[in-house]
């Protein structure tokens, strides 16, 4: 009987339904949809940040390089020395080591670049662009991306 069943399955190309793993981001609704040029406003509304480019694109696990343009409410570029990136996984309650990543001047004067930002595991990441002006309250722009891994 088993031989007959096996033969019927073989001839009929039977398959066993196995659960499909669509990855950690399949049902994630909190992530921003990545597109080069995505712009977000800061939490307090005094700044905007545009993600000019990301490598890899979209952001993923491992080392990431982002090129940003951060402007104040008047549209003027923010000094790169006032900027830092803080990646954090809200579902896991942890960030990265180091906790913040410095930005440096990019190829264009208004651009800031972060190199080797390590998103070391799959899942939802909140990447905050921290802005620490000398005369105003600190503020931040938050990007949310889900790293597939």
Written description of the protein model:
The chain has one domain (33-147): Immunoglobulin-like. Strand 2 and strand 3 form a beta hairpin. The strands form 2 sheets. The protein has a 5-stranded antiparallel β-sheet with strand order 1-2-3-8-7, with no helix packed on it. Strands 4, 5, 6, 9 and 10 form a 5-stranded antiparallel β-sheet that branches. By secondary structure, the chain is mainly beta. The model is unreliable at 5-11 (pLDDT under 50). The chain starts with a helix and ends with a strand. The protein is 7% helix and 43% strand.
CA-atom Rg in angstroms: 22 Å
Q: Helix/strand/pairing class, anyone?
A: mainly beta
Oligomer: single chain
Tell me how many strands there are: 10
Helix share of residues?
under 10%
Layout of helices and strands:
Layout: H1 2-12, E1 38-41, E2 47-55, E3 62-72, E4 83-89, E5 94-95, E6 101-102, E7 104-105, E8 111-119, E9 123-131, E10 139-147
Antiparallel strand pairs: 1-2, 2-3, 3-8, 4-5, 4-6, 4-9, 7-8, 9-10
């Amino acid at each position: 009987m088993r031989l007959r069943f096996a033969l019927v399955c073989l001839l009929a190309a039977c398959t066993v339904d196995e659960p499909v793993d669509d990855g950690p981001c399949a049902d994630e609704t909190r992530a921003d949809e990545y597109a080069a040029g995505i712009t977000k406003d800061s939490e307090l509304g005094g700044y905007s940040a545009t993600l000019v480019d990301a490598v890899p694109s979209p952001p993923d696990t491992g080392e990431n390089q982002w090129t940003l343009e951060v402007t104040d409410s008047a549209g003027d570029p923010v000094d790169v020395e006032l900027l830092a990136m803080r990646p954090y996984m809200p579902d896991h309650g942890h960030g990265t080591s180091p906790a913040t990543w410095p930005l440096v001047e990019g190829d264009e004067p208004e651009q800031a670049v972060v190199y080797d930002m390590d998103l070391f595991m799959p899942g939802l990441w909140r990447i905050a662009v921290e802005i620490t002006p000398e005369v105003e309250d600190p503020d931040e722009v938050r990007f949310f991306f889900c790293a597939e891994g």
